[in-house]
Design a protein that fits this description.
heterodimer, A: 500 residues, OB fold (Dihydrolipoamide Acetyltransferase, E2P), Chloramphenicol Acetyltransferase, B: 425 residues, alpha/beta, Rossmann fold, 3 domains, 6-stranded parallel β-sheet, 10 strands
Chain lengths: 500, 425
């Protein structure tokens, strides 16, 4: 007797949860011999060759190259070579009931891959695995009745088949239902193949087979495949093809539209699936690299910005005359350079390969910029050699070009320190993540009037909250604090910047 | 600068002998000077040199003792006929079949693991001579406690192949079946070595005509337990053979990061026992060394035998060796294949004509198939076993519990589903 082996992705390395299909080595229908490599799978530990458990034919591949598959999910099905071959398979479509009615044949008891014995009867009692029992309860199948006809072994498949027959009696055994669908070499897509499991399958199944593309589409649409009604089956299980999915979605839309007309509240909880690609992914990967490479520590302080506010007010009209919008940022950048010169360890990079810390004697400051596409960090080069107006105009230029995406990649490289002005949106303190491999990043909070104790009295003062994150491999907490004090000294006495 | 003592720690692929030269030292020093290595690397690297010191005391150092590996058949297959051990033709052919079996077994076990039929498995590819040569001289009454990469040595002691498959399926009964043949596998690295000494002590006290052999890897020699075990064996004159399969990699840690010593064998001196380093890819050399080891041990002289070999695959099915060692090193060792070397020896001896490799492999495959089937047929366990497992004679309280539990399941059959029977495999 021929039988079908559903091969589940095994845990190929003590405790891996999933694997990526790297490359298939076999096609559907191809004959394979036992231990022949059928697929390469990459786990987070290694790339491994997965061999066939049987001599037989590949029935179908159920995962696509590049797909991440959880351990335990069926990735390929085989038809094991039988001692008798094609004669048996020839009349399988008609599914002769007599052949199965001897009542002792279990569909698969070889236990090689997935068809392990799941239940057995002993001394008149049915011993079943918990999963089989639960399934039987759920589908209303009497295990004892099934075991009478399927012999000593009751498998999950017996229960499923009995459930689809609608009756779990001795007359209609589970086995013939299985026989009917077992022998088709490919998916049985005929919509009217009679007594199949699918016809009665309620659109609220436990298990639904589908091609990966369909699964993907369903995910995008936010449709659980188990809800999609279908009349196709594969291997005794409901199969959803692309047409079934689309027509289900169309029907559901229609239904919703009607329901909306009747002003009924929508009861489901819709989700939107956004591809994690492009800029979003780049940001994510760089954050991940930064966070999991450098141990980061943040240091917070507040700056009394009274003089800074005054100075800027004085200079603003002058700058405007030259067509420059003078914000606080250029002052902060200038102050940063002064403090970095005093504490060069913050303007550095850790060269792990060579085991060296590189202190940079040039000052290229990144400006974290909120764009429609996400966070970008354009860089203003040689800040130490520029005056306030030049810095202001450079910032304006790179930020604008970052926002309209006309900025080049090189203008976002070679930063040595980054400033992020999150306070422009709001908030006070933060824990910015390093723009790796830089070792320092400064976040500005919102500059606002806040109570401050001056000469023993609480008075309102414009206060700028600042947060500095540094790479603790290179920068000690004391360095970070001293740097911050120096920065603060400049920002509280902006006239000092004249000396820079 | 004069270099007085030098320990370059020979590269594994290069040579068995320790070479010391000022030049290599300077090169190494320059290399390290250019780099700012982390404390870890500094801590783990070899002492590169000791500057000229005016020393009066009689220091001993790595150079004091030269540890030459015992070898009978050279990697190119050449040998001195006088060195060939006095074995029967059948024994010579037997050794070949066992090595072929070990190789085939490892290949098929890896496949089984990839099919999801084993939990994990450590391939022995490359160790065939070390395993077979070290197991063959043991006697029926001897004990063998290993780490899992010495299957054929255990099969030689009577362990069944089915039970090895069961073991790697995580079926604990397998250990009991192994123990019936005086074999067991200790997964804890080196942790079982004091027990080996204990078993040997028992043998001594009972005046048994047997020795206990421990198989372990180079990584185990870095554990405290191994020192305690071997040292104490020396103190107590225990009939024990400590056979270290030094495959030079403890998972991803190379030998030179395990120890600053030139060999494992030389440690014997420190423990007050006898030691030998043997070319672990030369089955005849391993066999000869183990034969003598057994003689020594059975007279109450515990010994360390270090079989220097190389693990071709990963530590287990769970790691990817290409991530921690380079292909070049592996290639070098592929050229020193223990089976091919022995084939050349059989050809020189005129015994090769009696070998039908294909038929041997067929027979091995059949044996494996049968073991695989038998392992699949090893059924789930009975609820009763919870109660009968521990005691030779069940105490009345447990008997009562068993009876009551049986009644309970009779009364509430649905509770059966809460009993998680160990699945086979």
């Amino acid at each position: 007797m021929e039988d079908t082996i559903e091969f589940e992705l095994p845990d190929v390395g003590e405790g891996v949860a999933e694997g990526e299909i790297v490359a298939w080595h076999v096609e559907s229908g191809e004959h394979v011999s036992e231990n022949q490599t059928v697929v390469e799978v990459e786990t987070d530990k290694a790339v491994v060759d997965i061999p066939s458990p049987v001599d037989g034919a590949v029935r179908s591949r159920l995962a696509e190259e590049g797909e991440q598959v959880p351990v335990g999910e069926t990735i390929i099905t085989f038809e094991r070579d039988g001692p008798e071959t094609s004669a048996d398979a020839g009349d399988s479509e008609t599914g002769t009931r007599e052949s199965a009615d001897d009542g002792t044949v279990a569909p698969s008891i070889d236990g090689v891959a997935t068809d392990r014995t799941e239940a057995c009867s002993q001394n008149g009692r049915v011993f079943a695995r918990p999963s089989v029992r639960r399934l039987a309860r759920k589908t209303g199948v009497d295990l004892a009745a099934v075991s009478e006809t399927s012999g000593l072994q009751v498998t999950r498949r017996d229960v499923l088949a009995a459930a689809s027959d609608g009756v779990a009696t001795a007359e209609h055994t589970s086995v013939d239902a299985v026989e009917e669908t077992d022998h088709g070499v490919d998916v049985d897509r005929s919509a009217s193949s009679g007594n199949t499991a699918a016809e009665e399958s309620p659109a609220d199944r436990d298990r639904t087979l589908a091609m990966p593309a369909t699964r993907k589409r369903a995910r995008e649409l936010g449709v659980p495949l188990d809800d999609v009604s279908t009349d196709e089956t594969c291997d005794g299980h409901a199969f959803v093809g692309p047409e079934a999915l689309e027509s289900f979605v169309a029907a559901r839309k229609h239904e919703r539209a009607e329901r909306d007309q009747h002003a009924e509240p929508v009861s489901d909880r819709p989700e939107r699936r956004i591809p994690y690609t492009g800029v979003r992914r780049t940001i994510g990967e760089r954050m991940e690299q930064s966070m999991y490479t450098a141990p980061q520590v943040s240091h917070h302080d507040t700056v009394d910005a009274s003089e800074l506010v005054e100075t800027r007010q004085q200079l603003e009209p002058e700058a405007a005359d030259q067509g420059v919008d003078l914000t606080y940022l250029p002052f902060v950048m200038k102050a940063c350079v002064a403090a970095l010169e005093a504490y060069p360890v913050l303007n550095a990079e850790l060269d792990e390969d060579n085991g060296e810390i590189i202190e940079k004697r040039y000052y290229n400051l990144g400006v974290a910029t909120d764009t429609d596409a996400g966070l970008m960090v354009p860089v203003v080069e040689d800040v130490d050699r520029k005056n306030l107006l030049e810095i202001a105009s450079d910032v304006q230029s790179v930020v604008e070009r970052a926002r309209d995406r006309s900025i080049s990649r090189t203008e976002m490289e070679n930063g040595t320190f980054t400033v992020t002005n999150i306070g422009a949106i709001g908030g006070q303190f933060g824990t910015p993540i390093l723009n790796y491999p830089e070792v320092g990043i400064l976040a500005l909070g919102a500059l606002a009037e806040r109570p401050r104790v001056v000469d023993g009295e609480v008075v309102p003062r414009p206060v700028l909250p600042i947060s500095l994150t540094s790479d603790h491999r290179v920068v000690d907490g004391s360095d970070a604090a001293r740097f911050t004090n120096e920065l603060k000294r400049y920002l509280e006495n902006p006239s000092l910047l004249l000396l820079e | 600068m004069t270099v007085v003592t030098a320990n370059t720690g020979t590269t594994r692929a290069e040579s068995f002998t320790v070479r010391a030269s000022a030049e290599t030292n300077r090169a190494a020093l320059c290399l390290y000077a250019r780099r700012l290595v982390s404390w870890y690397e500094i801590a783990m690297s070899n002492n590169l040199s000791r500057q000229a010191l005016d020393l009066d005391a009689p220091w001993i150092s790595q150079d004091t003792l030269s540890v030459e590996p015992h070898q009978i058949v050279a990697p190119d297959g050449s040998y001195d006929p006088d060195d060939v051990p006095d074995l029967t033709e059948e024994a010579f052919l037997d050794l070949y079949r066992w090595m072929l079996f070990e190789k085939r077994y490892a290949e098929r076990m890896v496949k089984l693991q990839r099919r999801g039929e084993l939990g994990t498995f450590g391939s022995s590819r490359g160790h065939e001579a070390s395993i077979v040569g070290s197991g063959y001289p043991l006697q029926d009454s001897d004990w063998l406690l290993g780490m899992g990469r010495e299957t054929m040595a255990m099969l030689q002691q009577g362990v069944s192949l089915r039970d090895m498959i069961l073991f790697w399926r995580g079926v604990d009964d397998a250990q009991q079946f192994l123990a019936q043949e005086n074999c067991m596998i200790g997964i804890s690295v080196g942790g079982y070595l004091p027990l080996v000494t204990g078993i040997g002590w028992g043998m001594k006290r009972m005046d048994a005509d047997a020795v206990v052999t421990a198989h372990f890897g180079d990584g185990a020699t870095s554990t405290g337990a191994s020192h305690e075990a071997i040292n104490f064996a020396g103190v107590l004159d225990i009939p024990a053979i400590f056979y270290c399969q030094n495959n030079q990699w403890a998972i991803s840690t190379p030998f030179e990061k395990q120890t600053n010593a030139n060999s494992i064998a030389q440690r014997a001196i420190g423990y007050g026992v006898d030691g030998v380093r043997v070319d672990g890819n030369d089955v005849l050399a391993v066999h000869a060394a183990m034969t003598e080891a057994r003689e020594l041990a059975s007279q109450g002289n515990p010994v360390i035998v270090e079989g220097l070999t190389y693990r071709r695959g990963g530590h287990s099915t769970n790691d990817d060796p290409s991530r921690y060692r380079d292909d070049e090193e592996r290639e070098t060792w592929i050229d020193r294949d223990p089976i091919e070397r022995y084939e050349r020896f059989l050809q020189s001896e005129g015994l090769w004509d009696r070998v039908d490799r294909e038929t041997l492999l067929e027979g091995i495959d059949e044996e494996f198939d049968a073991a695989h089937e038998a392992a699949d047929a090893y059924g789930p366990r009975d609820v009763e076993e919870i109660f009968v497992h521990l005691y030779d004679e069940m105490p009345p309280a447990l008997e009562a519990q068993m009876a009551s539990f049986g009644e309970f399941l009779e009364t509430y059959p649905e509770m059966d589903e809460h009993v998680d029977r160990r699945p086979k495999g």
